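Researcher: Let's try something more involved. This one mixes different molecule types, so please make sure each is placed in the same coordinate frame as the others.
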Amino acid sequence: MADPMRIRAALAGDETTVRVLMAHIMETGIRKDASGALIPAHFIQDVEATHNGKSVLKTMWSGAVSQNPFLSFKFKGAAKGDKVVVKWVDNKGDSRTDEVTIA
Amino acid sequence: MKNTRRSALKVTGAFATLVSLGLITQSQAQAAVDRSGFSVKTLDDALKAIGGNAAASDQITVVSPDIAENGAVVPVGVVSKLPNTTEIFIIIEKNPTPLAAVFMIPDGTAPDVQTRVKMGQSTNVIAVVKADGKLFSAIKETKVTLGGCGG
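Model: All components are placed in one shared frame. Result:
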């Protein structure tokens, strides 16, 4: 399983801001190695964040998202102590799920 | 659900890109996930893939640096003040495959997202927003001093 995501979620007023740093090589598939062979694409394709079982964000990404992807988003309706769960799935079918408690 | 999506992905080619991308935003996840918009190579094709022409709007802000020192890691954000924003698309015009990221925004989530992208060279960053079913866009140019795909 990949390295854990670093997630922070902070409530300000009625809005929670979630900042996620994922660990992933995000290989585009168009780079070549020293011998000239293409390095195969390996990147996160889908990210979903949920709060209390409800989806609060979905993303579809390409290899153009930077290595060790950063994601920040905001949503309403949560309280301190609630959990936000973030899951990513990459183009090889690997996935990683982490959660954070809203501070 | 995950397995269904994955096996549907393998069958994907047949779906019309436009319709499929629209289907993704609904929660009937039996629809195949159509990622073909991510492999098109020109800005025009990327715009076609996400639904056609987008009217320029000053209600959308592209947050990106004027000059990016490292094209491998350029912070890009999009903020939309358009009501009922449901999708945000980030397009990096001069990248080999311009469509970089798509964000689906449900009710309760702000149309305000940030990530970091690779830029091969100085380029326009185009944010397209789907609000009330219609597409709107905003553009910002970002200059790159060191290109973004390694090597």
